[in-house]
Amino acid sequence: VSADRQIAPSLPVELAIVGAGPTGTSFLERLTANLPCVAPGLPVRIHLVDPFPAGQGRIWRHEQTPLLWMNSMAEDVTMFTDDSVVCEGPIRPGPTLLEWAESRRGSPLATPELTAELAALEGPTFPSRRIQSAYLAAVLERVLGDLPPGTEVRTHRAAAIALDHTADGRQRLTLDDGTALAVDVVVLALGHADTDGFDDELAGFADRHRLVHVPPALTADIDLDVVPGGEPVILRGLGLAFIDIVVMLTEGRGGRFEPSGDGALRYIPSGREPILHIGSRRGVPYHSKTTYRLVGGAPLLPRFFDAAAVDDLLERHDRLDFRAHVWPLLAKEICWGYYQELFRGHPDRVTMPFAEFAERYAVVDHASPDMEALIESAVPVLEDHIDLAAIDRPLAGLRFDDASAVHEHVRRYIAADVARRSDRRYSADLGAFMALLSSFGQLPRLIASGKLDVRSRVEHLDGWWFGFFNFIASGPPPARLRQILALADAGIVRFQGAGQWVRADEHAGRFVAGSTSCDDVVHARALVEARNQRPSIARTANPLVRHLRDRGGIVEDVLADPTSGFRHATGKISVTSDALRLVDARGDAHPRRFALGAPTNRPAAGAFARPRTNAPSFRQNDAVARAVIGELCDASEASKRSRAAS
Ligand SMILES: Cc1cc2nc3c(=O)[nH]c(=O)nc-3n(C[C@H](O)[C@H](O)[C@H](O)COP(=O)(O)OP(=O)(O)OC[C@H]3O[C@@H](n4cnc5c(N)ncnc54)[C@H](O)[C@@H]3O)c2cc1C
Asked: Could you tell me if the CB of 608 is within 6 A of ligand 1?
């Protein structure tokens, strides 16, 4: 026992984690794993603040429709570090979603349906969100059951609405139930933010004409009861929100799917469904997830867009353009992932030994005549070639006679996609996907170098590239697309095509929507925005973010190019690159305020960690946890000194 402690025994230092969804929970795990190593015996009181159940948070709460599914396979989700994770803190293994499910088989969950789902759950299953909710609750329980001595966790089912400095150098976190917490350090893990004022013009039009306009929102929170049944409704967006919304407007209204042979489905309507006219910029849904594994074994990736390639780019160029300098390497990597799997997994479909192909592929540029000649001679069937431009914009340049022709074309496109993505003869597609994922290892360094032209970063990397990535890699399970096809056959889903536009027809008092794929348009009394909200600090609906923004405690990340004058506000919370400290309006980093996750300009990932992948979110949470512990130690020392002095 130190002399200090004899004079003034330690009072606990206090930390508030605002937002107790997966990120807040994962951070708590890293914090409590690190505490005994970095600050053994330090008494810490942790406040977990969230109006939704801690562990699950808003997106993964149990109280939501059971119809919504995860977009990940059970075997691809974990909340615990494993020995692939390279971080300073201790590795504390725990069950993946699949392992947890296997360990719980036979024990009842909240409802008989969930218990039955758990019993049938396998690695490639896409579980319901409620299963993930139960897993996340179990994760928090395990973390709380494993707290180091001297650590206490208190949960508060309330929203934080204000954060202020106090005279004694601490901070006061005010909650909407009237509680005021005096804390030393605050970590924000606020997740996807709501924004106000989406498309005021269309919303105003809807108000004036008593129409229905459903703005973008988290699907579990959307009120779709306002959407009329039995008449045309326009849906804008074909990403993941589209799947959730369509399910809620069909199965959620009492319809059901039944097998119709050959793995296809038939939809039996309830009669309360709207007729959904759906489109987007691309005009087709995201690609189906694959359900098979690689045939040719573990791929050797990355090969062309690796650390050495980035070194070389940075050495040769003062200024990098994503499309001109980075994309050719990335594209070569993606195609390499594809052909590697084709050659190793399906040698009967190629004319050359893999070693020879690999040697020749390495020395030709992406999309060059030499590359094309090599592929033509090595892969005889055109269907086995990968064409990234055609994948990216499948309806580009196509015009159709009428809306029915567009619909039929998109319907066939989806059916072909589902068939291909469920057939391991096309496992080369998974090879391309693996290469796509591997690229994320290099992109942060490229961004951090400061050499990427700002406009190119905004338009090409953050804009086009991430959209392309999501289109290929973040699509729905094939079973969902089979449901969409059944709804198309039942006349409930109608595809409008690419370049979808929506306008207010003041004369008719209706929304009108069309596309660049044909001349036909549709009029409707209801418009549903089937897409995520764009982040915005200026328009945030989060009371805490608003409070901090108005006092200069939070600023929006702005990407600016002093040479060209180009500026782009990303809508994200500015944090420092080292320990994710909040940056204030003066540009200073607050030593005791941290922020993690999607709403910041340094998100580790947009999805759950996959087991055995050295997931960036674990590494980031670990580093921030250690910085937070450093601040807690300083706060403890300062408090001891001031009490000793008084
Ligand atoms: C609809 C949807 C589905 C998804 N599906 C998948 C999937 O299947 N697989 C996958 O890998 N990823 C998926 N994701 C990605 C998603 O980012 C992560 O799964 C995960 O939810 C992110 O966790 P988080 O804790 O950062 O954010 P959230 O889950 O949003 O949690 C943040 C928490 O902060 C709380 N909060 C916010 N403000 C305050 C405040 N002022 N006071 C107190 N609490 C506050 C919220 O209530 C919320 O509980 C999905 C995302 C969305 C939006």
From this structure: yes
Average pLDDT rounded to a whole number, residues 534-542: 93
Quick check: 260 and 397 in contact, CB under 8 A? no
User: Do residues 483 and 265 touch, judged by C-beta distance below 8 A?
Assistant: yes
State how far the alpha carbon of 80 is from the alpha carbons of 28, 83, 97, 489, in Å. Answer: 11, 10, 10, 43
Atom from ligand 1 closest to the CA of residue 161: 41
Could you tell which of 59, 194, 594 is best to mutate to test the pocket of ligand 1, judged by most ligand atoms within 8 Å of the CB?
59
Burial 345-364 (b: 16+ CB within 10 A, else e): bbeebbeeebeebbebbeeb
Q: Is the CB of 189 under 6 A from ligand 1?
A: yes
- The Å distance, Cα 145 to ligand 1 centre, comes to 23
Q: Is residue 80 within 6 Å of ligand 1 at its C-beta?
A: no
pLDDT, tens only, 173-223 = 999 999 999 999 999 999 988 898 777 789 999 999 999 999 999 988 999
C-alpha–C-alpha distance, residues 385 and 388, integer Å: 10
Q: Who has greater pLDDT, 230 or 300?
A: 230
> Which run of H or of E encompasses 559?
strand 556-561
Numbers of helices and strands, H then E, in the chain: 20, 21
User: Whose CA is closest to 524, among 207, 211, 198, 253?
Assistant: 211
Cβ 538 vs Cβ 569: under 8 Å: yes
Atom of ligand 1 nearest to the CA of 606: 17
* β partners of residue 581: 594
- The pairing of strands 232-236 and 581-583 is unpaired
Q: Residue 300 above 90 pLDDT?
A: no
Output the residue whose Cα is nearest ligand 1's atom 30. Answer: 191
Which pairing describes strands 265-268 and 256-259: parallel, antiparallel, or unpaired? Answer: antiparallel
Give the whole-angstrom CA distance, residue 637 versus residue 17: 21
Query: What is the rounded average pLDDT of the residues 393-400?
Result: 96
Using the mean position of ligand 1's atoms as its centre, give its distance from the Cα of residue 117 in Å. 23
Residue tagged 């937002």 (tokens):
19
The response to whether residue 615 sits with its C-beta less than 6 Å from ligand 1 reads no
**What is the predicted pLDDT for the residue at 262?**
81
β-partners of residue 529 are 236
* DSSP label of 522: E
Ligand 1 neighbour 159 (Cβ under 6 A): yes
476: left (phi over 0), alpha (psi -120 to 50) or beta: beta
Residue 403 Cβ < 6 Å to ligand 1: no
pLDDT confidence band for 9 (50 / 70 / 90): low
Phi–psi pair at 532, nearest 5 degrees: -75, 155
**If residue 433 lies in a helix (H) or strand (E), which one and from where to where?**
helix 428-438
* 310 within ligand 1 shell (Cβ under 6 A): no
367, 373, 376, 377: CA torsion to nearest 10: -150
Per-residue pLDDT tens digits for 572-586: 999 999 899 999 999
Q: Is 597 in the pocket of ligand 1 (CB under 6 A)?
A: yes
The least confident of 5-19, 122-136, 483-497 is 5-19
Q: Is the CB of 49 under 6 A from ligand 1?
A: yes
Global model pTM greater than 0.85: yes
pLDDT exceeds 50 at position 7: no
Contact 517, 318 (CB under 8 A): no
What is the distance between the alpha carbons of residues 21 and 19, in angstroms, rounded to a whole number?
A: 6
pLDDT digits (tens, 9 = 90+) for 95-118: 999 999 999 998 888 889 999 999
233, 243 contact by CB (below 8 A): no
